[in-house]
Every structure is written in structure tokens, then in C-alpha cells.
Predict the 3D structure of the following.
Amino acid sequence: MRHPVQHAEFLVTAAADDQLPPVGPPEIAFAGRSNAGKSSAINALANRTRLAFTSKTPGRTQQINFFRLRGGALLADLPGYGYAAVPHALKRHWQEFLARYLATRQSLVGLVLVVDARHGLAEADAQLLAGYLASGRPVLVLATKVDKFAAAAQRVAQRAIERDIAAAFPVHAAQVTVVAFSATRRIGIERAEQVLAGWLGGPPNEDGGPTPDAAKEKAPRSRGVTRGPKDPRQG
Ligand code: GDP
């Protein structure tokens, strides 16, 4: 499965638990703060200009848009969070819907978290991860918009996110793979596709850990790196 997200087709929109598609085929969820670059990342992976059409109108940000991938797997485009203009009650409604979906959805095999590499891991991202990681399932963090950085700074931004995750979730950090990404310059597409294809290629690892490739890649990097006590919620 070389391009797992290509040829994705819109399936259905869900705004409440009873509107979710029946549990069955493996599902990959995409999440991120509003404007992090989630729609652009999905479109870049799908090789389309307008596949993800999550509306930014406040009243419609509580929806999950489902797409069917080649082979029958589903892509769930989760509502962007951290959108200031959303009324409080509505915000709480979809935060709960989203948290419940991530924590309990049986067919969910992995979460793609889109993070603006310039801002790093935000408190809302950490909260989302806290609710999800306990399930033991893997996460692919797309550190996006790295085209705004020179090559060396791209790696620095990626490692900063890795460090924040290791500091905030020491028990679950091995479930997370961080990839430097750019939708506009198509950086990190292949690496992201490898991770997604790994999730869809069969049942997730028994321990929920990353693919063997990702584990191999991360090991040398963590050697000699001081894991600072930095709280990601500060950034
Ligand atoms: P979403 O709200 O998370 O779906 O974010 P969008 O995909 O709509 O992107 C938000 C803004 O960031 C838009 O102005 C995009 O053009 C811009 N953007 C998204 N991805 C990239 C990227 O990889 N590089 C750059 N330079 N800008 C990006």
C-alpha cells in the first residue's frame, strides 16, 4: 500500500455518537488545532486540492468527516480545536464528543496529530494525547509548515516536539512518531505514508508501539539527549 490516503472518497459526516459509521474497517483519525494545517496535510497525502472540507464556521466545527480509503479503511477528519470564536457550550459538546471518540472508538488504529512546527505542542494537543495514549494505540505527529524553516531548524523543531512528548508522556512516548512535514513543499509525505500503511497493513502492534522502522529511527536520536523537564503546556 504505497499511497494509503490517495483515492479517498467522502463517506459521511457525524456530529454525534449515533451518526458514526458502523464499527468495522480500520480507521485513522486526523486531529489538530484550527489552522495547524490539518486540511492541507490531508489534501497533500490524498494528492487532491480539496478533499478535507472541514468548515471553519463555528456551528459546523463539531463534525467528524469520514472518508473511505482504498481497501475500505476509513479516514476520520476530526474538528479542529482551539477555535476562539466557538461558544463555550458548543466547545464543550464537541470536546467531549471528540475525547469519547478517541478514547473508545473500537476500530481506531491510529491518530495523526497535526502540529504547527513553529508553535510546537500546545496544551490542547497534550490534553488530546492524554485521553488517547492510554488506549495503547500509535500516534503520528506531523510537524507541519517546516518549509518555513531551513533544513537544520526543521530537525530542531521536530526534536523539540519529541522532547515535549517524552517529558509529558514518558510511559507512552514510544507510541509516538514525529515527522517533519510540509503540505506546500511536500516534505515528509513518504515517511507519513509509510507509518499510515503500517497501521493499515494489519492489526496494530500488540503493545500499540510504533512500526519497527520508526523504533529503529528513534533509538539513536534519544541517545545522549537530555530530556528536559519542559512542560509543553508552557509553549
Ligand atoms: P486547518 O485549520 O488545520 O485545516 O489548517 P489549513 O490546512 O486550512 O491551513 C491553515 C493555514 O496554514 C492556511 O493558510 C494554509 O495555507 C497554511 N498551511 C497549511 N499547511 C502549510 C504548509 O505546509 N506550509 C505553509 N507554509 N503553510 C501551510
User: Anything to note?
Assistant: The chain has one domain: 9-234. The first strand starts at residue 9 and ends at 14. Residues 88 and 177 are 33 Å apart (CA to CA). Helices lie at 38-46, 88-104, 123-133, 151-168, 189-200, 212-222.
